[in-house]
Design brief:
This protein has a domain at about 35-125 and about 140-205: Hypothetical upf0131 protein ytfp (Roll). Helix content is about 30%, strand content about 25%. It contains seven helices and nine strands; from the N terminus they run ββαααβββαββαββαα. It has helices at about 50, 55-65, 75-85, 160-175, 215-220, 230-245, 250-260; strands spanning about 35, 40, 95, 110-130, 140-155, 180-190, 190-200, 225, 230. The strands form three sheets. The chain has a five-stranded mixed β-sheet. The chain is globular, with a radius of gyration of 18 Å. The model is unreliable at about 1-40 (pLDDT under 50).
């Protein structure tokens, strides 16, 4: 397997299309520490290593308790085989990121581009009671919901490494099945490509539809857990969208409101 290609890259090299092989500059953040342009430092970061050695999931269990069930190795292998079998074009495998995948994918890729998908929009609609939230300070995490469009980053995976790299991705995104992996069309400067997107699983207990903007902002302002805070997640998302040259006015408005709230608001009741 080749060297990891900036799986945690935080610079703005994706403000334009990035050709293959251009993502090999070193990641300067210390291992396990993620530094953002906004000056926020997250003390924990998901990495390829802690996904593969099981320490990330052990950390989640420590925060949420032994009742948390993760996909078994066999289930994950089956899921990956099924998504590859459904690929619209064999050998063309892209992954679309709209949240932290934009700056910390953790899997190896050979190409990274700005992209837009249609029929889905970015939305804080998943509870975070572990990771960036806790039972005492619950927060919210992003997914995509039906309707509208969403701009983000698409990664092309080498088909020869697809099983290995999607296994890493499934460990990151699908451990508790709170997402539904779907094949969609990602539109990029050089044309459309089939891509995997992780949409919200509406039957999952983490799904929380219909929250108004003020309620979302209050949970983001106060949600925090072992992996950091929800406000850091929001600020990083808004920051990386700006670096990409993408205007997401809703994310920008939420970031402004959270900054206003976080100094004096108490956590809302779950």
């Amino acid at each position: 397997m080749g060297p990891e290609r900036n799986s945690g890259q935080q610079r703005a090299d994706c403000a334009q299309d990035v050709p293959p092989g251009a993502q090999n500059a070193p990641d300067l953040a210390p291992k396990g520490v993620c530094v953002s342009q906004s000056g926020l430092m997250t003390k924990y970061r998901i990495t390829r290593e802690n996904l593969l050695d099981g320490s990330h999931h052990a950390r989640v269990r420590a925060g949420q308790g032994p009742h948390v069930r993760f996909m078994t190795d066999e289930e994950r292998s089956t899921h990956v085989a099924e998504i590859l079998a459904r690929a619209p074009q064999q050998g063309r495998i892209w992954v679309f990121g709209y949240g932290s995948l934009m700056w910390n994918p953790a899997f190896h890729y050979v190409e990274r581009r700005k992209a837009r998908i249609y029929g889905f929009h970015r939305q804080f609609c998943m509870w975070a009671r572990g990771g960036r939230g806790s039972p005492e300070r619950p927060g919210l995490m992003l997914s995509v919901e039906s309707g509208g469009s969403c701009a983000g980053v698409a990664y092309r995976i080498d088909p020869e490494a697809a099983v290995t790299e999607l296994d890493v991705l499934w460990r990151r995104e699908m451990s508790s099945r709170s997402y539904r992996p779907l094949w969609i069309t990602a539109y990029m400067r050089r044309g459309p490509e089939p891509a995997i997107v992780f949409a919200v699983n509406r039957s999952h207990e983490r799904y929380v539809p219909g929250l108004d903007t003020e309620t979302i902002a209050r949970y983001l302002a106060t949600g925090a857990g072992l992996n950091g805070s929800c406000r850091e997640y929001l600020f990083d998302t808004a920051e990386h969208l700006r670096e990409l040259g993408i205007r997401d006015r809703r994310m920008e408005a939420l970031a402004r409101r959270v900054r206003d709230l976080r100094r004096h608001e108490e956590p809302p009741s779950p």
